[in-house]
Amino acid sequence: MITTYIGVGTNVERKKHVEAAIAELSQLGEQLKLSSIYECASVGFDSDAFYNLVVEMKTSMSLTDLSQSLRKIEISWGREEFAEKYQDRTLDLDIILFGDEVRDSGPQLPRCDIFKYPFVIQPLYELCPDLHIPSDGRTVRQVWRQSSDFDSLISIKPWFDLKN
What we know:
4 helices, alpha+beta, 6 strands, 6-stranded antiparallel sheet
């Protein structure tokens, strides 16, 4: 089993799509742990605010199979197949970390969003502050301490129970 971290984002019917993402991810792995849910403004375009969180889970799937499965889930929940980078999302599922895997593409790992966006590093910090980021050498905590703009995040109280 490999521990992976999946970023979840949505700005369309946010509650519905967060719940859908968690239900779908529970079919792909086990021992799911969820960060807090954060609301933040859209980045790169003017639209409704996003809900973002990170899900830690263990999976026996290969990276390729997991990546393909996440893409199928996104599309099945209404994401346009050829969606532009900066547009509304019913569901956006990104592999942030996949064990110790390091890749430049297909998907890039660790995902560079760890170092760019508070809505990725803050929830990752909640789940695994002492984890060393592959190829970087720093811990999540060290990257988190060097980050800024946390004022742009609003923590949302979860409305669901993972145990049910």
